[in-house]
Design goal:
The chain is an alpha/beta fold. It contains 22 helices and 18 strands.
Length: 510
């Protein structure tokens, strides 16, 4: 007998329906075709043990299974439950009249219990788009799938529950959550706040400008000056995620297997801080079976590179294209995958190998060592970072001050006002904030008066700035003007934006 059952495969951050055709006929044998990987080929052993420990067994007949489309590679153990039910249905051991109404996915343990799988959210979205009645999957994944409305979601602990469900010997509990309520309840749950930062007013101002315009920023300062502390608080002043952005971000984390059993939606902007030993592939994404990298996991959030010069140069250079295009394209001989990568880059570095230049009177780093250290960051990469800010040492009086600093909420209110101005400005275009402006938008929205032109011309000549650095100054100045609710860019806006090009100065070239 031939039975069809449905699962799904992940391609990038979307899903594709997989039709699993199971035919049981006279003879002996087990044949699995349709480009399965080794994990799927080994599923027969897991299925056999799980069924036996649940009171069933694989029939001693010829079983042929095709996973269509046959030219698409299938990966992972998530098809165990689909294959097991297909075998039972084709052997007339369960009723299968309604089995094609559901997407069924799950990894089987030998005792018949189910392990969670990856990519549940895009699978659930695809199931609704293709008109399936519901989705049946491990209970640990049910919360994540339930954020998709107009779809029945059933979470199960073991294979016996679903067998009883189709044989009408038992009921499955439908899992439901109020997506919008859950989203609103957790939207302001930030672990860190700017009111905990002592002093560093200039740095906090730079972070506010960066947040308001979506600008990349690098913090330069000696150890213990508070670079990491400040960077961790950036998500708390960024505009809150919209529901659409939350779903986009959750899909990526779902595909990467980063969602917990108690988490359904990512409600605050992600903050990713990879170690400096990270490889190119781990940062950008890819591999034999492509997975999102750290820059995609930071989509709609912040990627923090602590001690940036310690990262391998090849790792840093592969970020150039994603920083410009805000998407990562991974090409293989037979397919191409795109992962979104619209993130804010926040980097930190010491001013010298010893860490204390220029404050250390006994600087132990030679001129050559200083030059070698600074050369770890290429010019083209630094050009893509809009704001360079020096983080000064915190004085004793500031550390011991009892008064708290300005809270993230009040800073975020100003950032939101600036973003509202930008949303209105770019409502008829594909961009959302100032950092994304192209040459056309800059020509239209960054007009300078004569005094501002003289200022920026002097900076270009003195600092020997590139054309990209020039455009960065204009974009930052536009953001500063938005924070002050100024329609036009003024001279003081340009002056402040020039201040944020520290690494372009001869001072750092030694």
């Amino acid at each position: 007998m031939l039975v069809k059952i449905y699962g799904a495969a992940i391609h990038g951050v979307s899903a594709q329906i997989i039709t699993i055709e199971v035919n049981v006929d006279q003879g002996v044998g087990y044949h699995l075709v349709g480009l399965p990987d080794n994990a799927i080929k080994e599923s027969s052993y897991r299925i056999s043990a799980a069924l036996k420990n649940s009171g069933f067994k694989i029939p001693g007949k010829k079983i042929t299974i095709n996973m269509a489309p046959a030219d698409l590679r299938k990966e992972g153990a998530a098809y165990d439950l689909s294959l097991a039910l297909g075998i039972l249905a084709a052997s007339d051991l369960i009723k299968y009249e309604t089995i094609s109404d559901y997407i069924i996915m799950g990894e089987l343990s030998l005792d018949g219990s189910l392990q969670p799988i990856r990519g549940v959210l895009p699978i659930a979205i695809k199931a609704r788009e293709d008109g399936f009645k519901g989705i049946i999957l491990p209970k640990k994944n049910a919360r994540e799938a339930a954020i998709v409305n107009q779809l029945d979601v059933y979470g199960i602990d073991n294979i016996k529950e679903i067998i009883d469900f189709f044989n009408e010997d038992g009921e499955l509990e439908k899992f439901e959550i109020d997506t919008r309520k859950e989203f609103q309840d957790k939207i302001d749950n930030f672990p860190f706040d700017f009111d905990e930062v002592k002093g560093q007013e200039a740095t906090k101002r730079a972070m506010e400008v960066a947040a308001a315009g979506g600008h990349n920023i690098i913090l330069i300062g000696s150890p213990g000056s508070g670079k990491t502390m400040i960077a961790k608080r950036l998500p708390s002043i960024l505009p809150t995620l919209s529901l659409k952005e939350s779903l986009e971000t959750t899909k990526i984390h779902s595909v990467a297997g980063k969602m917990g059993a108690e988490t359904s939606l990512i409600t605050i902007r992600p903050f990713r801080a990879p170690h400096h030993t990270i490889s190119d592939v781990a940062l950008v994404g890819g591999g034999s079976y492509p997975q999102p990298g750290e820059i995609s996991l930071a989509h709609n959030g912040v990627l923090f590179l602590d001690e940036m010069p310690e990262f391998k140069r090849t790792v840093l250079e592969v970020m150039r294209q994603p920083l410009e295009d805000r998407v990562v394209t991974i090409s293989r001989a037979k397919f191409t995958i795109e992962y979104p990568a619209s993130f804010m880059l926040v980097a930190s570095m010491n001013p010298s190998p010893s860490g204390y230049f220029p404050d250390d009177p006994n600087n132990t780093s030679s001129t050559m060592e200083m030059q070698r250290y600074m050369n770890k960051l290429s010019g083209p990469l630094l050009d893509r970072i809009d704001i360079h800010i020096e983080v000064s040492k915190v004085e004793y009086e500031q550390l011991t001050e009892k008064k708290k600093g300005e809270s993230s909420a009040s800073i975020r209110a100003r950032v939101n006002k600036a973003r509202d101005i930008q949303n209105e400005r770019y409502k008829d275009s594909d961009i959302s904030y100032n950092a994304q402006m192209g040459s056309k938008e800059m020509e239209k929205h960054c007009e300078l008066d004569e005094y501002s032109q003289l200022l920026i011309k002097a900076a270009m000549l003195k600092l020997n700035l590139s054309a990209r650095a020039y455009s960065r100054i204009l974009k930052v100045a536009r953001t500063i003007a938005d924070l002050e609710n100024s329609e036009n860019i003024q001279g003081d806006h340009i002056s402040e934006a020039i201040q944020y090009r520290s690494l372009d100065r001869d001072f750092w070239s030694v």
